[in-house]
Amino acid sequence: MPSPDALPAVAVGYAHPPVAPPHNNPPVIDPEQFRRAFRSQASAVAVITAAGAHGPVGFTATSLTTLSAQPPTVCFNIAHGSSSWPAVAAADHLGVHLLDETQEELAATFARSGTNRFAAPTTWQPGPHAVPLLHGCLLRLVAAKRATHHAGDHAIITAHITWADSPGHRQPLIHHDGSFTALHKR
């Protein structure tokens, strides 16, 4: 007779105990299924910038999140194949810009590849540590890069906030179901 510790656990409310997948064959989800599933998750829209060797670089990020309040720390993801990746990887400081609901075109500009994202009508100026700072954003931050973690085809960047500028309270731009939208309060 097996010891009580060797008996399977029975979950309350289930007709049969849940079956864990075998450890050597974890379930796999198709990358396109994965993307479709997470399109329903709403997220704030940010633009991340860096001073590159050949001029400023930047990209639209919908993965920005706060990580810690003490010290103030954020994190975001960037694809290794992004044209901005080499400059972001080499940078010590980054610009983090939360966009407001009127900046859909700016978000689209920084999401588009093969264009000069810093050309007119984009307005910007060098900030602390020569970080490119975009004008008119909901929130502008300069962050000192602290760690880079590689995960699949992306890198996760963590950075401590060293400078902040918040010109006033406005509604954020949101990314949901594959498009940019405004947050509508009820």
Name the helicity range: 10-25%
Average pLDDT level: 82
End-to-end gap: 61 Å
Kindly name the structural category. mainly beta
Most strands sheet? 7 strands, antiparallel
Number of helical segments with 4 or more residues: 3
Number of strands: 12
Unreliable runs: 1-14
**Assembly classification:** single chain
Which sequence of SSEs, written as H and E, runs from N to C? HEEEEEHEHEEEEEE
Question: Would you give an account of this structure?
Answer:
The chain has 186 residues and is mainly beta. It is 12% helix and 40% strand. The chain contains 3 helices and 12 strands. The chain has helices at 31-38, 85-90, 104-111; strands at residues 43-44, 46-52, 55-61, 65-69, 72-79, 93-98, 124-126, 132-134, 139-151, 154-165, 173-176, 179-182. A hairpin with a 2-residue loop joins strand 2 and strand 3. The strands form 3 sheets. It has a 7-stranded antiparallel β-sheet. The chain has a 3-stranded antiparallel β-sheet with strand order 1-11-12, with no helix packed on it. The longest helix is centred in the N-terminal third of the chain and has 8 residues, at 31-38. Residues 1-14 have low confidence and may be disordered.
Please outline the helices and strands:
Layout: H1 31-38, E1 43-44, E2 46-52, E3 55-61, E4 65-69, E5 72-79, H2 85-90, E6 93-98, H3 104-111, E7 124-126, E8 132-134, E9 139-151, E10 154-165, E11 173-176, E12 179-182
Antiparallel strand pairs: 1-11, 2-3, 2-6, 4-5, 5-10, 6-9, 7-8, 9-10, 11-12
